Amino acid sequence: MAGHNHEHGHSHGNGPGHSHGSGKTLLVALVFTTAFAAVEVFGGLIADSLALLSDAGHMLTDSLSLGVGAFAAWLARKPASRRHSFGLKRAEMLGALFNVLFMFGVIAFITYEAIRRIGDTPAVAGGTVLAIGALGLLVNLVVAWVLMRGEQSVNVRGALLHVMGDLLGSVAALAAGAIIYFGGPPVVDPILSLLVSLLILVSAVRLLREVTHVLMEGVPKGIDAQEVGDTLVRIDGVLAIHDMHIWSLSSNSLALAAHVDVDTMERWASVLPQLQHVLHERFDITHSTLQPEDASIRRACSADPDCGAGDSVWQPDGKKAGAA
């Protein structure tokens, strides 16, 4: 009977040091973002500006994203245990799901308040909104600079996208303050706050799609299963790849499981390192479980219509053979 071989590789970009560097970068950004969100909440209440409050809500969701990222980087350094054989990498996805739900709550609140204020717009202190909006733009530029100089993990790049959204929110608050300060109608404040809430909605929907895709064990973004299968079967000694599954353990840790048909079982010791090298270096798949099988077993199986039904097979001609 064919044996099973489980190999667990570790990418140079996803090790403990990498997670630690990402965590420090995210913590620095978290401090800046959270502190200014508090300033915007205070300024929004004083100036009675929904634009400032909505931008504060946007920055608060980003603070949660940064916090989740930093916490996930810390959890990623925790070793696997008997109870959690993959470690605690999926905590990142659970935190992101909480973050999405929180963002939807912020959107609902801002939208409700904006519609109410469009019909009955209170006086807004344009000068205060203008000053805090300008300060917010500066803070977001500093945070973006910190993130761009740090370790470029998936968490950090995702946080950077949120910060770019914050920049637009600060521009909206700045525009509202300037228009009101120079004599424009106060109704511009709730209107621009609706635009900010739209930015939050776009971020929330995008993040929800990513989280759902990971939790549903979808093929990771940027990975083409067809290309992976075609590449593996080009390795000398490999006759076919089947039962292949690729999924994400977290945003920066990919896994693959597959059955590998080899011409002779004696060659497995030399074929396995080549498979791992290709998965690691070309596709950044750091956790692989590869099961060798004698090609004669596959040929015997193909004679049975119920054997391996629906299983995609990659063969050395570079084309997926389809169901067995």
UniProtKB/TrEMBL annotation:
Select a single GO molecular function from the record's annotations and give it. Answer: zinc ion transmembrane transporter activity
Topological category with respect to the lipid bilayer: Multi-pass membrane protein
Which UniProt keyword terms apply here? Ion transport, Membrane, Transmembrane, Transmembrane helix, Transport, Zinc, Zinc transport
Which residue ranges have biased composition labelled Basic and acidic residues? 1-10
User: Where in the cell is the protein located?
Assistant: Membrane
> Where would I find the Cation efflux protein transmembrane domain in this sequence?
26-216
Task: Give the highest taxon in the source lineage.
Answer: Bacteria
Zinc among keywords: yes
Q: What residue stretches are annotated with the Cation efflux protein cytoplasmic domain?
A: 220-293
An example GO CC term for this entry is:
plasma membrane
A Pfam family matched in the record: ZT_dimer
Task: Give positions of region: Disordered.
Answer: 1-20, 301-324
Database matches in NCBIfam families = CDF
What is the protein's name according to its record? Cation transporter
